[in-house]
Design brief:
152 residues; mainly beta; SH3 type barrels; 2 domains; five-stranded antiparallel β-sheet; 14% helix; zinc; Asp_carbamoylTrfase_reg; Asp_carbamoyltransf_reg_N
Length: 152
């Protein structure tokens, strides 16, 4: 019997690869992008990486992500790499980051914040740090870390 040393995830012909996701974080991105409902996808969890030690990755077959979705991914996986694939080749490769200000992507966890009052629908945060992710609401000045805020 031949012992396998590696398991290889096949290349995708067209779609998106999200690489260098912090280990054990791909499930947040899968849920956030509603991948179970939309696309065929492959994921690797807790894989070895020379760049970040351990990582996750997601390959989305025939999928794409909007700029808004890229910003959401950056909140979960700052520094992740997104590659657009066409005919098995990388046609675009970007490293995603969060800018200093985040508008209308996440909901303020402070129930007393004016942004949670009807009919107010605008949210605005300032990024304080990426690792760990910390953001500050411009309206109530509450400071929140990853896991405390939810996406709109």
């Amino acid at each position: 019997m031949v012992e396998e040393k590696e398991i290889i995830v096949r290349k995708i012909e067209n779609g998106i690869v999200i690489d260098h996701i912090p280990k054990m974080s791909s499930s947040k991105i899968i849920q956030m992008l509603h991948l179970y409902d939309k696309f065929e996808f492959y994921t690797g969890i807790n894989c070895n990486s020379g760049k970040i030690g351990k990582k996750d990755f997601i390959k989305i077959v025939n999928g794409d992500v909007s700029n808004e979705e890229l910003n959401k991914i950056a909140l979960v996986a700052p520094g992740a790499t997104v590659m657009r694939i066409k005919d098995f080749e990388i046609v675009e490769k970007i490293q995603i980051t969060i800018s200093g200000e985040i508008a209308n992507i996440v909901k303020c966890p402070n129930i007393g914040c004016i942004t949670n009052q009807e009919p107010y629908k605008i949210t605005h945060f300032i990024k304080l740090s990426e690792k760990p992710m910390k953001i500050k609401c411009k309206f109530c000045e509450g400071i929140f870390k990853e896991g405390e805020f939810e996406f709109l």
